[in-house]
Specification:
By secondary structure, this protein is an all-alpha fold. Helix content is 54%, strand content 1%. Strands 1-2 form a two-stranded antiparallel ribbon. Helix 12 runs antiparallel to helix 13. It is a multi-pass membrane protein.
């Protein structure tokens, strides 16, 4: 029996389990082989894994007293504790429509069709217009939905805290709501789009893990749309509470407590450099943990646990670093609700406050922080060939040169007079 099998026969004739043997070669070779698949997964939800078969002990006479044990059910179970069953509804079953019964008889050319060969869809496999649209937009729609769900939970928890003057929640509870909101969103969308839900994460994933740049742009657009959707829904749900708290405090909406919930901003006593590096550090820790959890040569969590761990991590980072700036650590989290607040009439000055904080804080600091977190992890631990840190120098120079040439072509700029690719990569004149 080959060594690639998962079990061996021992001397007594019983099967004994065999430990997993990694592929031969270096860790770099293993990462390259894994990265050469047809469908690479850039997911924050972790690699998919099937539940192992039950290995529980069964007594010698157990089935005599439990004759139904282990028998398959003859009906599906719509359980919230396991994957839902896949069924065909009665109206969709073959034979429900007259044309189905006609097809079961004779075709248009008079030949009898073979039993069991039923084709109820169109030639391209799409049964209706929306299934065709969803096929091409499934990943962006997942990012939009996930960002919307995560931010609705976080924004509503924060608005609840501020509009109730602390009666319905606390800073700790809103931090936990943000973390678990993103946890739920990753569980919802992680298997489809990867559950990035953060432009900074998508950009860092593209830079250090080979996530396609074109898809990265689409993901960011979907995430921003999701943030705008969530901001609008949260504002509508808490509109009455916002008006009530503003009336009781006799201040305008854009200066009331709700403004601290909708948008992020550094405290008045926080120096701009401190605010920048607060966001920078938080994003670095978050994405550094993301790439660590996704590194199968390190200590990846068990199946289904990665989103849970990330939810806890987001909560902890907001608790530890969120006081100075409001705990953004996500470009979309600030931009979407800020735009909604401006559309609600809070004033365009929201985009000019704190020297345009929304640009140099949630965008510049968070993106650079995520890039830095991945860089530090790759320099210290990661050995995979998909990271630029581990490129051979010649290939790194060649890749940068090719990217620069392609970018100038896309922008319609005249190409620079330069050496050929190989000369550029080797550094020869």
């Amino acid at each position: 029996m080959s060594r690639s099998t998962n079990s061996n026969w021992n001397a007594s004739g019983n099967i004994e389990s065999q430990e997993y043997e990694p592929p031969e070669g270096t860790q770099e070779d293993g990462s390259k082989n894994e990265g050469a698949g047809n469908n690479p997964v850039f997911s924050l939800a972790g690699p998919g894994a099937h539940n192992p078969a039950s290995n529980s002990y069964i007594g010698e006479n157990y089935r005599d007293y439990n004759p139904q044990y282990g028998k398959e059910r003859d009906a599906p179970t719509w359980s919230l504790a396991q994957p839902l069953p896949h069924i065909v509804r009665p109206g969709m079953q073959h034979g429900a429509l007259p044309e189905d019964r006609k097809d079961d008889g004779h075709g248009a050319n008079g030949t009898h069709q073979q039993s069991g060969q039923h084709h109820t869809g169109s030639d391209d496999g799409f049964f209706n217009t929306w299934s065709r649209i969803r096929h091409y937009l499934r990943e962006p729609l997942a990012e939009w939905l996930g960002t919307t769900v995560a931010m609705i939970i976080g924004l509503c928890a924060t608005l609840s805290h501020y509009t109730s003057s602390g009666e319905a929640g606390s800073y700790t509870s809103q931090s936990v709501a943000w973390g678990f909101g993103f946890m739920v969103a990753i569980y919802i969308t992680g298997g489809i789009s990867g559950g990035h839900l953060n432009p900074a994460f998508s950009i860092a994933m593209s830079t250090f893990r080979g996530f396609p740049a074109r898809k990265c742009v689409i993901y960011i657009a979907a995430q921003l749309l999701g943030a705008i959707t969530a901001g609008g829904i949260a504002y509508a749900i808490y509109h009455d509470a916002i008006l009530e708290i503003d009336a009781s405090t006799k201040v305008a909406q854009n200066a009331g407590p709700a403004s601290e919930a909708m948008i992020t901003a550094p405290k008045s006593f926080v120096h701009p450099a401190t605010a920048f590096f607060t966001e920078f550090l938080g994003s670095a820790i978050l994405f550094g943990a993301v790439v660590a959890l996704g590194d199968d040569t390190n200590a990846p969590p068990g199946a289904g646990m990665q989103a849970f761990i990330l939810g806890i991590l987001i909560s902890v980072v907001i608790l530890a670093l969120g006081y100075n700036t409001g705990g953004c650590f996500n470009c979309a989290r600030d931009f979407g609700p800020r735009l909604v607040a401006v559309m609600a009439g809070w004033g365009g000055h929201l985009f000019r406050e704190s020297h345009a904080w929304w640009v140099w804080g949630p965008w510049c600091a968070d993106i650079s922080g995520a890039l830095f977190g991945a860089l530090v992890y790759d320099m210290a631990i990661f050995t995979g060939g998909e990271s630029p840190v581990n490129y051979p120098p010649r290939r790194r120079k060649r890749a940068l040169h090719v990217r620069a040439v392609n970018l100038r072509k896309k922008l319609g700029l005249r190409p620079k007079k330069s050496k050929d690719l190989e000369s550029s990569a080797t550094g020869k004149k």
